[in-house]
Design brief:
Layout: H1 2-17, E1 33-36, E2 39-43, H2 51-59, E3 65-67, E4 70-73, E5 76-78, H3 83-97, E6 104-108, E7 121-125, H4 130-142, E8 147-152, E9 163-171, E10 176-181, E11 185-192, E12 200-219, E13 225-230, E14 235-240, E15 244-245, E16 251-262, E17 265-271, E18 273-280, E19 285-294, E20 300-305, E21 311-314, E22 316-319, E23 322-330, E24 333-341, E25 349-359, H5 362-381, E26 385-388, H6 394-403, E27 407-411, H7 418-427, E28 431-435, H8 438-445, E29 450-453, H9 462-472, E30 475-478, H10 484-500, H11 517-539, E31 545-549, H12 558-563, E32 568-572, H13 577-588, H14 590-597, E33 601-606, H15 618-627, E34 631-634, H16 638-646, E35 651-655, E36 663-667, E37 701-705, H17 706-712, E38 720-724, H18 733-739, E39 744-748, H19 755-769, H20 774-785, E40 801-805, H21 824-827, E41 834-843, E42 848-856, E43 861-869, E44 875-879, E45 881-884, E46 887-893, E47 899-908, E48 913-915, E49 919-922, H22 937-959
Parallel strand pairs: 1-4, 2-5, 2-6, 6-7, 8-26, 8-27, 27-28, 29-30, 29-31, 31-32, 33-34, 33-35, 35-38, 38-39
Antiparallel strand pairs: 3-4, 9-25, 10-17, 11-16, 12-13, 12-14, 12-15, 12-16, 12-17, 18-24, 19-23, 19-25, 20-21, 20-24, 22-23, 36-37, 39-40, 41-42, 42-46, 43-44, 43-47, 45-46, 47-48, 47-49
Helix pairs in contact: 1-22, 2-4, 2-9, 4-6, 5-8, 5-9, 9-13, 10-11, 15-19, 19-20
Length: 960
């Protein structure tokens, strides 16, 4: 027993003596703690390449990554002088300037952002192929990691074989005009004729001073009801839609409703055109059609009709007498291209229609999913990523050796090459984790949610999907194989609204057709079932959270609406991948950037509603804000609104009409109240019914176009925007806010008029003030106030709301304070090891030079070596032997009178190097030992003896 006490005492003595050199173990947090990282990554944007996207993926594990439950976040952007990027970089540099400035700057390629911020440490990389760049980042930045990600990609990602077709023709027919006067009635309907020579149709319905609505429906080849045209808000007087297409084998019906009962004058014009059938053989495919023509005053347009008979896409003007049509994600089948003359008089037009058809090989989707999820996994385990498109090369093996990596995560989704590479790795002694499916990756990342992206219209979109996925630890998926049907259905439904009336002014992300039987009972449930089935099949479990990150024209908003209220869903927006990347970076940094400028100020502009129960009135919002320590400011005058923004408003609530969808109509008196349609303009409000129609009270309104509004605002510093009413869909209102630094835009369409809009708005703000995330609050209000498809109900209400921003965003938090950013150099250990003692002794009895060195580092040492030379020209190296406790030892044999030059070098796991000064010694009998600065040679020998004695005592104790 006494021996045990002695052993315990001696062991504690040794531990306490060497305690300063022990490294503290880190604790793993129970939940993710988000910490800012004083770093900025800027990548050159190359339009015709995806090397820049792969560069973003390569640097992602150094930009957004997780270590032991702590998520480190920093911005990664494309090089751009556009507002979203400029404002984001300005805000981030401003934040870091409060903490000794920016620490680390990564740039890839030729970066022109001015002024380029200064940083304490900078890394610049050439923009080269993904394999070479990933190896260069390993060599220059990582240098050590026990784990590494190896991702199998393809050399190129492109459309397969292109089929070319050309059609020429002449259009010289006269438009056909048919006029009808309806009987006095509430409702009127009549069949529409279909002409193979005149497929373009326009309708004008003049009901005089009576409020009326016009609708055209058609029975397609699938016998479904297609809404070709619908006036989404009742008009008084003339109704004038632009073109829609009516094919010969489609039965169509015109429907007119008038209130009160009245008579209307209807004029139907059929325009000449030509019809061409195009066979698409692969799913998914893409088509590009170039329409050129000659002819004085001729004006032509091309339409693409799906096999079911729906308008899928229409051409846009490129220049005079030149239109182009592009459509992607097409299903196999018999498609139709229609060329239509739009002039209302007889015009002779000679035209050429050149068509290019291509398909997407299956490996495109597989490669993109591999690359994105490899980067997300690298971020989740904080390990370097190496891309390869062939078997293991010597360069890759050398990089893995340099890293000291023994655990390899090999990723190749649906890639037959993985088995060969797996065998090569295991034969070399690596521990290999193989991921060849989405489900296998989900098993590591978890089941919290997923990111959905597309590559059909913009191949560059996959990088932004990786960044937001890394932030959430989401698995990312795209449309592949049979699941391209989802894309086809979504584009078809979205196209009904887009092409129902070409004069529609709305923001295309918000397009949604009328809530008729076809939409409610067939297509929205179809989308819901197909999407949830796809996710369940690929993930092996149900998914509750979804983020869409893609071009707004690629994955249309109907996908959001089919899932709203059932899933927590948000959308990353931007007019292209460059602005979307800035939008995503602002979202993931919002917790910190919002502390720079924002205050607990809620700005509200209500020019339409103030009625109903107290719980759904503006007074309720005032009291709710006050109870949660927020200041509530009501403004309907633009200068006052802008002043509130500048003073740090954290959110702007807008509820009201727009200027026929092209901007804002703001009440002049700048009072907070609803203003009656055709009612009193007195102050205070007399009638108090709360409804306003800006078109009837023009003398009491300021009108601001979206262009004027865009020019009026500057950096919003992460202010949120929530809008209900037609202004939400006005041209580019959501995009304008995103461009000026808003991380969240929740918008809706005009259908929210009346009590529903009040309820959704009030309850949404109430949930946010109570601390719910945006995604949770949005899901709850949609489920509570809008009918959604649940799998058991055929009665689907296509909610007209859309959330653009991150689902985890919260309102300006109650307890958020600026947080000092972490330094990448400390996380990756860029510090050199310290040689705290260095001695040598020359023993004459055996002509030996004995060298001892004590080395300390905050991580594990890779090796300690002695470098020596007898002529200071040819050098030799010997690895020193560890005696334990940071002490290293070696012996060199000398000759009498021989001169030796030597120094000690220590290298840690991250390849940081520390060397002693070079020493010159000539062997003579009288040479005495030379001692280092802090510890004597004798002390070190005694330490070694003590360790040996302890070992002997332990051995004797065990023998007893």
């Amino acid at each position: 027993m006494r021996s045990a006490y002695v052993l315990t005492f001696l062991a504690l003595s040794v531990i306490l003596v060497h305690a300063p050199y022990a490294s503290a173990s880190s604790m793993i947090a129970n939940k993710v703690n988000i910490v800012p990282l004083s770093s900025l990554t800027i990548v050159e944007n190359i339009e015709d390449s995806i090397w820049d996207e792969y560069a973003i993926l390569t640097l992602l594990p150094l930009t957004v990554f997780n270590i032991d439950g702590t998520l480190y976040v920093s911005p990664i952007v494309y090089d751009s002088d556009r507002l979203p990027t400029r404002y984001l970089v300005e805000d981030w540099i401003s934040y870091c300037s409060n903490y000794n400035g920016l620490d680390t700057l990564f740039t890839v390629g030729d970066v022109h952002l001015q002024p380029l911020p200064d940083a304490h440490m900078s890394f610049n990389f050439d923009l080269e192929d993904p394999c070479s760049l990933s190896l260069e980042v390993v060599r220059r930045v990582w240098r050590y990691s026990e784990k590494a990600i190896l991702a199998l990609i393809n050399d190129s990602i492109s459309v397969g074989d292109i089929v070319e077709k050309s059609f020429t023709g002449v259009l010289n027919s006269t438009p056909i005009e048919i006029e009808t006067k309806t009987p006095v009635a509430n409702k009127f309907s009549q069949p529409l004729m279909a002409y193979s020579t005149h497929p373009g149709v326009s309708i004008i319905a003049d009901a005089g001073d009576v409020r009326s609505s016009l609708e055209v429906v058609a029975s397609t080849k699938l016998h479904n009801i297609e809404q070709l045209f619908y006036d989404w808000i009742p008009y008084v007087g003339v109704k004038n839609d632009s073109f829609f297409i009516l094919l010969p084998d489609v039965e169509a019906m015109l429907k007119l409703e008038m209130y009160p009962p009245s008579s209307a004058q209807i004029k139907i014009t059929y325009f000449p055109g030509a019809i061409y059938h195009i066979m698409i053989n692969e799913t998914p495919s893409c088509i590009e059609a170039k329409l050129t023509w000659t002819g004085e005053d001729a004006s032509l347009r091309a339409y693409l009709i799906s096999p079911e008979g729906y308008v899928f896409a229409s051409s846009i003007q490129v220049s005079d007498n030149f239109h182009m049509l592009k459509a992607t994600g097409l299903e196999a089948g018999n498609w139709t291209l229609v060329v239509v003359e739009t002039a209302k008089t007889t015009i002779v037009a000679n035209y050429t229609l050149h068509v290019s058809i291509g398909s997407y090989p299956p490996q495109v989707a597989a490669t993109l999913e591999t690359a994105v999820n490899a980067a997300v996994l690298a971020s989740a385990i904080h390990a370097p990523i190496i891309f390869t498109h062939e078997n293991l090369s010597d360069e890759i093996l050398n990089a893995l050796k340099l890293l000291n990596a023994r655990e390899i995560y090999l990723i190749g989704i649906d890639d037959p090459r993985v088995s060969n590479v797996y065998n090569q790795l295991t034969e070399r002694g690596f521990t290999v984790h193989l991921f060849s499916s989405i489900r296998s990756i989900r098993n590591v990342l978890g089941t919290r949610g997923c990111t959905l992206f597309s590559y059909f219209e913009n191949i560059n979109d996959f990088a932004s999907a990786a960044v937001i996925s890394a932030y959430h630890r989401f698995t990312a998926v795209t449309f592949n194989g049979d699941y391209a049907k989802i894309y086809h259905v979504a584009k078809m439904v979205w196209g009904w609204a887009t092409h129902a009336s070409d004069t529609y002014h709305g923001h295309k992300e918000l397009h949604i057709p009328k809530n008729d039987y076809e939409i409610a009972a067939v297509w929205m449930p179809t989308l819901y079932k197909k999407i949830t089935s796809m996710l369940t099949a690929r993930f092996g479990c149900s998914i509750k959270q979804l983020i869409i990150s893609s071009s707004r024209y690629d994955i249309p908003g109907v996908l959001d609406r089919s899932l709203a209220g059932a899933l927590t869903i948000g959308r990353m927006i931007g007019i292209d991948h460059v602005e979307r990347m800035a939008f995503i970076s602002r979202n993931i940094l919002n917790k910190f950037l919002s502390t720079l400028h924002l205050k607990k100020i809620i700005t509200a502009t209500f020019t339409t509603y103030d009625h109903g129960a107290f719980i759904h009135s503006t007074d309720f919002l005032k009291e709710l804000a006050k109870n949660n320590s927020y200041t509530f400011e009501a403004h309907t005058h633009l200068p006052s609104i802008l002043s509130s923004f500048e003073n740090g408003s954290c959110i702007w609530l807008y509820l009201g009409h727009g200027m026929a969808g092209s901007g804002f109509g703001l009440f002049k008196p700048d009072v907070w109240r609803g203003y009656e349609k055709g009612g009193s303009v007195d102050d205070p409000d007399v009638d108090n019914d709360g409804f306003v129609d800006s078109s009837d009270n023009r003398e009491h309104y300021y009108y601001y176009s979206i262009y004027d509004f865009n020019a009026s605002i500057e950096n919003l510093h992460s202010m949120m925007f929530i809008s209900y009413g037609c202004v939400s869909g006005a041209w580019e209102v959501p995009t304008v806010f995103a461009q000026h630094g808003s991380p969240l835009i929740i918008a809706s369409m005009t259908v929210t008029y009346g009590g529903i809009g009040d309820k959704v708005l009030c309850d949404l703000i109430a949930y946010l003030l109570r601390g719910l995330s945006v995604g949770e609050a949005f899901k709850k209000v949609i489920a509570e106030h809008c009918r959604t498809f649940s799998g058991s109900s055929e009665n689907f209400y296509a909610a007209w709301y859309i959330l653009m921003g991150d689902i985890d965003l919260k309102m300006y938090p109650f307890d958020t304070l600026p947080e000092e950013p972490a330094l990448l150099g400390e996380i990756l250990d860029f510090e050199k090891p310290t040689i705290i003692q260095f001695t040598y002794h020359l023993f004459s009895e055996n002509n030996c030079l004995h060298i001892l060195a004590t080395v300390q580092d905050n991580t594990q040492l890779r090796n300690v070596t002695l470098h020596y030379s007898f002529d200071n020209a040819t050098w030799y190296m010997v690895e020193m032997t560890s005696l334990g406790n940071g002490t290293y030892y070696c012996v060199i044999t000398l000759e009498q009178g021989k001169t030796i030059y030597f120094y000690v070098e220590a290298i840690d796991l991250y390849l940081n190097v520390q060397c002693t000064s070079m020493v010159k010694v000539t062997y003579q009998k009288e040479t005495q030992p030379v001692t280092g600065k802090e510890f004597s040679f004798t002390a070190i020998i005694l330490t070694c003896i003590l360790v040996a004695a302890l070992a002997a005592i332990v051995y004797i104790y065990k023998r007893r």
